[in-house]
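Lecture notes, continued. The same structure-token format from the folding unit now serves as the input rather than the output. Read the line below as a description of shape only.
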């Protein structure tokens, strides 16, 4: 899969610009705060329907404008794809090959993308929310049933949590079993899909990390084993767990059991990465996880995703930069940096200079 052309209008600091991408390495370079990351963000938005940087649509619109437009022409196994988004302050309109997309679920699975930026260190150093976010975004691109189950689970979870705060305890106890039955149905789908994904991710991340470090360190990812088994087994186990903890949940005012509490352990040489790893080790570990994600996309979809690397080179030493470039051979990569070093990227790289929200040709 590759993106051939990206069009930006009133997006962040861009007025009206088109960018042509080649099959291999595309280097967006220029001084800081010129719009390189904005371009990378637009690519990811079209692939996933979400921004990796902002939850508010209006922040994507150029100051003083009423809307932003981004679109891309891409090529995959089944021919060309054209995807378009018009973003307003309080909403958006998206189209795929000219047809309106009503749900975000219909955005996913058309263009695949793996995004890495310095902020991805959160995957290692922050709390479980960040690791669940990573799993949700990655698996949702590959599995529409997962995305649908996740959306329904979150909605039911919110309603259950609201119920737990009600003052009429008799009504709460009467209603909880009904919500729990639905909650467990979707929780089981989520748990099975996550387990399958993590079983693939762990060895691939370990291999990628060994490559980046020349075998100097060993990365291990251990998924939580609480919700393992078949969908029926997980559904039954979680239903019992919820039933046994009604008093606790009512006292706390929220649901204390379920896949929304999942986590995964990430260790380097057997030591917890969040606690003991240096910034450089965390960065390399997070990058290895992202490279493993690329491998999973290839294995499950049959084609490589677009790899978007935002400002990653400035944080790596030269040997690991060279290793990373070597690892990207064979897939389309969009990389942002301040200098397009020939010694690192080679002569055939598609170098694109960005200045003030415009391509300088």
């Amino acid at each position: 899969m590759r993106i051939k052309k990206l069009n930006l209008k009133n997006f962040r600091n861009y007025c009206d610009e088109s960018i042509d991408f080649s099959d291999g390495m595309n280097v967006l370079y220029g001084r800081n705060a010129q719009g390189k990351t904005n371009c990378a963000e637009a690519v990811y938005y079209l692939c996933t329907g979400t921004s990796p940087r902002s939850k508010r649509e209006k922040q994507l619109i150029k100051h003083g404008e009423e809307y932003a437009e981004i679109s891309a022409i891409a090529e995959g196994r089944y021919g060309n794809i054209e995807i378009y988004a018009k973003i307003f302050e309080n909403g958006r309109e998206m189209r795929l090959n000219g047809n309106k997309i009503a749900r975000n679920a219909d955005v996913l699975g058309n263009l695949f993308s793996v995004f890495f930026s310095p902020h991805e260190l959160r995957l290692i150093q922050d709390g479980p929310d960040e690791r669940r976010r990573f799993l949700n975004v990655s698996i949702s691109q590959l599995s529409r049933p997962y995305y649908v189950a996740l959306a329904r689970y979150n909605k039911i979870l919110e309603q259950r949590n609201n119920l737990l705060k009600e003052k009429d305890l008799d009504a709460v106890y009467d209603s909880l079993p009904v919500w729990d039955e639905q909650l467990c149905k979707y929780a089981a789908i989520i748990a099975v899909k996550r387990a399958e994904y993590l079983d693939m991710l762990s060895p691939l991340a370990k291999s990628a990390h060994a490559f980046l470090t020349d075998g100097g360190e060993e990365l291990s990812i251990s998924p939580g084993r609480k919700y393992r088994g078949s969908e029926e087994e997980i559904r039954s186990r979680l239903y019992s767990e919820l039933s046994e903890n009604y008093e606790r949940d009512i006292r706390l005012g929220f649901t204390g059991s379920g896949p929304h509490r999942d986590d995964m352990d990430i260790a380097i040489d057997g030591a917890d990465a969040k606690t003991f790893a240096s910034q450089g080790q965390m960065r390399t570990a997070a990058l290895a996880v992202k490279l493993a994600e690329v491998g999973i996309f290839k294995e499950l979809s049959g084609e490589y995703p677009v790899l978007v690397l935002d400002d990653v080179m400035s944080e790596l030493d030269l040997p690991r930069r060279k290793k990373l470039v070597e690892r990207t051979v064979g897939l389309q990569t969009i990389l942002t940096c301040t200098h397009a070093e020939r010694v690192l990227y080679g002569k055939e790289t598609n170098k694109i200079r960005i200045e003030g929200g415009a391509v300088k040709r």
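Point for the exam: The two ends are 26 Å apart (CA to CA).
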